[in-house]
Amino acid sequence: MSSSVLYDAPGPRTRARSRVISFISTAVIVILLGWFIFALGQPRETAGGATLAGLWDPSRWDIALEPVLWQGLLWRGLVLGTLRAAGLAAVLAIIIGVLFALGRMAKNPFIRIPTTVLLEFFRGMPVLLMMLFILLGLKVGDYWAVVWALAVYNGAIIGEALRSGVASLPRGQSEAAASLGFTGMQTRFIIELPQAFRQMLPIIVAQLVVLLKDTSLAYIVAYPELLRVSYQLKDFYGSGRYSFTLFFLTLIIYLIVNLSLSAFARWLARRSGSQAVGATRKGNKKDGPAATPPPGQTGIDTSLLSIGQPDGLTGRTRGENAP
Amino acid sequence: MTAIFENFDLVLQGFLMTLRLLAVGAIGAAVIGIVIAFLRISPVPAMRNIATVYTELVRNTPLTLVFFLIIVVLPVLDFGVDSTIGAYIALSVYTSPFIAEALRSGINGVPLGQAEAARSLGFNFGQTVSLIIMPQAMRMVVPPLINVIIALAKNTSVASGFLVVEMVAISKTLANRHGDQVIGILFGIALLYLVITIPLGLIASYVERKVAVLR
Questions:
Q1: Which residues does the UniProt record annotate as the domain ABC transmembrane type-1 (chain B) (predicted)?
Q2: What is the pLDDT of residues B132-175, one digit of tens each?
Q3: Which residues of B touch A13 (CB under 8 A)?
């Protein structure tokens, strides 16, 4: 049986045809890419009549051997800039997320309603605006502006994820806690939150990948993270000769870091998925194994999360959306 | 806040620019996203792979970097575009894989049994797709698509860093001009963003409740 709802398992003729189409489309893509790379490599005439070397010319790439460049990009940009901000923001975001989740689930409406309003406010505005808010309004310096903006925004989203995690727990969990004489807070902290946290771990990790990606917004508020350092290095070397080289290296670094983190998030989702989500999935047998997506495209669709909304097809229970 | 009302024409201009970025970005992303989604579910493995590589690469590139490429790097290489058009392109390209993923997960989310049942009734491929699969997929796709649009609305703010005069850029100008009312100005701008995002969120939850496919 085929794995897609749209077409059958192919027969021999379809397989042959599919091989031909595969070959042709791959060839077209390879030729287009090759042409593009070749075109980039051609020397160009400027309006002034001077000839610029092609993009793959060694004269554009000789800085790749300089330790100053790598020290700047990897140490100053990636570690001291991007990762230092992202690391602290991630820790704070989880703490803020727990606080938001507690506030939104509070029995007291005087806590619950203001938290809800605040949460919707934080979720609905751009991170960049929040950075500006903190930078211009609170005057705490660029590092803290970046860290707090990322922490609060992602904290709001993690809070929603945790809350929907708690909401999806079987009611017996809190009833059992109550029967043992746990107080409300004990139930939350000892019984419910640990389970919700485990269940929502893939979503939370995916959100932390988003957080890491969003640190590049700090470029706009002039915090020296990877992209800003790369831009500074361009100025340092003068002329536009190295601008493409530097951009290319920066892009590669971002892709390596983000792709490996995304892969980690997916691995985590696959690994914890069967145990943690098992309880809810068992009641849903009729979909059968066919409904589980192929490996690598995990059930909890982290793709949709990468833009900052932990809902849609994911962890949210139906009908609990915006205010 | 008074600075907002005094400079209402400026703020309105920024608001309209944000809306324009949102509209053009959404349409552009939808066009690219639909193509990628179709490649992604095509029966030909090579096309699926091409779409997957595109999705992974674009999704793992920060939006700022996409903007930077189109508005700062390309002009150096003589492929320059005007910064507003560059912003349209950057937003469209960056959002397209998210649209594609939302569409794909909607189609893949239809249980296999539905197609099997259709076939067992003698439906041909066209009938299966148009009568059974698509109607269900479309309903499942609307809420995640709206969430993508909401994210896009917030992402338009990145354009402010690249010479596009939209709401955040206006807020920076106003904040520099009225140093005593910074918080009020930023708060006002934030509320204008909520004017865009909250109704969209409400529509998403309404649609989700209204057209959900019960299983």
A1: 15-204
A2: 888 888 888 888 899 899 999 999 999 999 989 999 999 988 98
A3: none
Cα A125 → chain centroid:
17
Alpha carbons A24 and A47: distance in angstroms, whole number: 39
Kindly list the residues from chain B whose CB atom is less than 8 angstroms away from the CB atom of residue A121.
190, 194
Q: Which residues pair with A51 in a beta bridge?
A: A45
Contacts of A55 in chain B (CB under 8 A): 77
Q: What is the rounded CA–CA span in Å between residue A298 and residue A314? A: 11
Nearest residue on chain B to A257, alpha-carbon basis: B60
Largest CA distance in chain A: 85
Tracing tokens 């593009």 back to the chain, one arrives at: A36
> Nearest-CA distance from B45 to chain A in Å?
6
Q: How far apart are CA B61 and CA A165, in angstroms?
A: 29
Predicted confidence (pLDDT) per residue in A23-70, tens digit: 998 999 999 999 988 888 888 776 666 777 777 777 778 777 778 888
Task: Locate the chain B residue with the closest alpha carbon to A18.
Answer: B44
**Dmax (CA) of chain B:** 72
Beta-carbon separation of A262 and B60 below 8 A: yes
Residue A15 forms contact with B (CB below 8 Å): no
Residue A318: band (very low, low, confident or very high) from pLDDT cuts 50, 70, 90 = very low
Q: Tens digits of per-residue pLDDT, A219-254?
A: 988 888 888 888 888 888 776 678 888 888 899 999
Confidence of residue B58 (pLDDT cuts 50, 70, 90): very high
CB < 8 Å to A217, chain B: 62-64, 158, 161
Nearest of B31, B11, B156 to residue B100 by alpha carbon = B31
* Structure confidence at residue B90 (pLDDT): 95
ipTM: 0.85
A25–chain B nearest CA distance, Å? 7
What is the count of residue pairs from A and B with beta carbons less than 8 Å apart?
220
Task: Report angle CA A129, A135, A136 to the nearest 5 degrees.
Answer: 90
Within a 10 A sphere around the Cβ of A44, how many other Cβ atoms?
14
Which of A121-135, A285-299, B194-208 is predicted with the least confidence, judged by mean pLDDT? A285-299
pTM over 0.90: no
Whether B190 sits inside 8 A of A262 (CB atoms) is no
What is each CA distance from B186 to A96, A135, B182, in whole angstroms?
22, 11, 6
pLDDT, tens digit (0-9, with 9 covering 90-100), for A157-180: 999 889 988 988 888 888 999 899
Radius of gyration, CA atoms only, chain A: 25
Instruction: Tell me whether residues B212 and A318 touch, CB distance under 8 A.
Output: yes
Residue with tokens 């095509």: B42
Which residue(s) pair with A45 in the sheet?
Answer: A51
Determine which helix (DSSP H) or strand (DSSP E) holds A114, and give its type and residue range: helix A109-124
A140 interfacial to chain B (CB closer than 8 Å) = no
Q: Supply A33's token pair.
A: 């890419």
What would the two tokens of residue B119 be? Answer: 């076939």
CB contact under 8 A, B154 and A290: no
